[in-house]
């Protein structure tokens, strides 16, 4: 009897375990799929622009080089490296002692030459007075030849005097440039380390005056972009390293000649230089990398919609106009310019309409 009771209990336990396993692992009915709501886009009225992205460098527009007017040494500096100077301000003074010595010697030589000319003239006059006193014809001819020789020599000496006087005036003019003034306003930067006794040669570059308030943005564009650009177009500018700093500028020049590097490689598309004048801004520095968006077209009060909403799988582009209550209508549209993720709608829609993507 106990044996049968054990068998019955075992059967009951096995049946319970089987039922539990079935309930746990039986296939679950699939939940009904939810249909996602359609994506909608509003038709708006806005200003649309087209731009060309360019990259380049900032450079200073006005820079004036300062040269030594003659060979000497710098006697005195009136400014320091990096000083802000004004037009007409004294930069430095050259030593004039050697030049003054030359002038004194030249003046002495001139005075002596003038005295020689005067003495020669007296000698010529005396020779003319005594020429008729010669005893013989031969002596008179000899005296005449001697007088003419002195006269010609004196004329040459007088011409030499004129040249000496010109040389002196020229030297005086050079010495008057011993004090060197700033030709423009800006920051003065020395070409190299300087001292009061620094020796310089004539025409040597001493430094540069830079007007930090006037800068330009130099960039290059390809053939396609070049034909879309013209002077006067506005530009939104930013530093490549500081994109949060915004600047503005205007296209001032579009080169009509391709860069020379493009001429040697026929497989390479030509590139053209573009100059953008930057609006003065104390935050801008020369020599930094810049990016700019040149506005090539602007249209106000444009009817626009997201480009994603426009279907192009038929001969004419179309949209699905939301009619409400889940109803849509296919509407053919005529498109215009594209800007970013928006497309101009010339006809077919009006501001306030809603289009959908099923």
Furnish the topology, listing elements before pairings:
Blueprint: H1 2-25, E1 39-42, E2 44-67, E3 72-77, E4 84-85, E5 90-94, H2 97-130, H3 137-175, E6 179-181, E7 186-190, E8 199-200, E9 205-222, H4 223-226, E10 234-239, E11 246-258, H5 260-263, E12 271-278, E13 289-306, E14 318-324, E15 327-332, E16 334-339, E17 342-347, E18 354-357
Antiparallel strand pairs: 1-18, 2-9, 2-13, 3-5, 3-8, 4-7, 5-6, 7-9, 9-12, 10-11, 10-13, 11-12, 13-17, 14-15, 14-18, 16-17
Helix pairs in contact: 2-3
Summarize, please.
This is Efflux RND transporter periplasmic adaptor subunit. Helices cover 29% and strands 40% of the residues.
SSE topology string: HEEEEEHHEEEEHEEHEEEEEEE
CATH class of the largest domain: Mainly Beta
Cα-based radius of gyration, to the nearest Å: 47 Å
Shape: elongated
Task: Give the distance, in angstroms, between the N- and C-terminal Cα atoms.
Answer: 73 Å
Strand arrangement in the largest pleated sheet:
2-9-12-11-10-13
Helix- and strand-based class? alpha+beta
> Would you give the CATH topology of the largest domain?
Elongation Factor Tu (Ef-tu), domain 3
Family: Belongs to the membrane fusion protein (MFP) (TC 8.A.1) family.
Domain Multidrug resistance protein MdtA-like C-terminal permuted SH3: 317-357
GO molecular function: efflux transmembrane transporter activity
Keywords: Coiled coil, Membrane, Transmembrane, Transmembrane helix
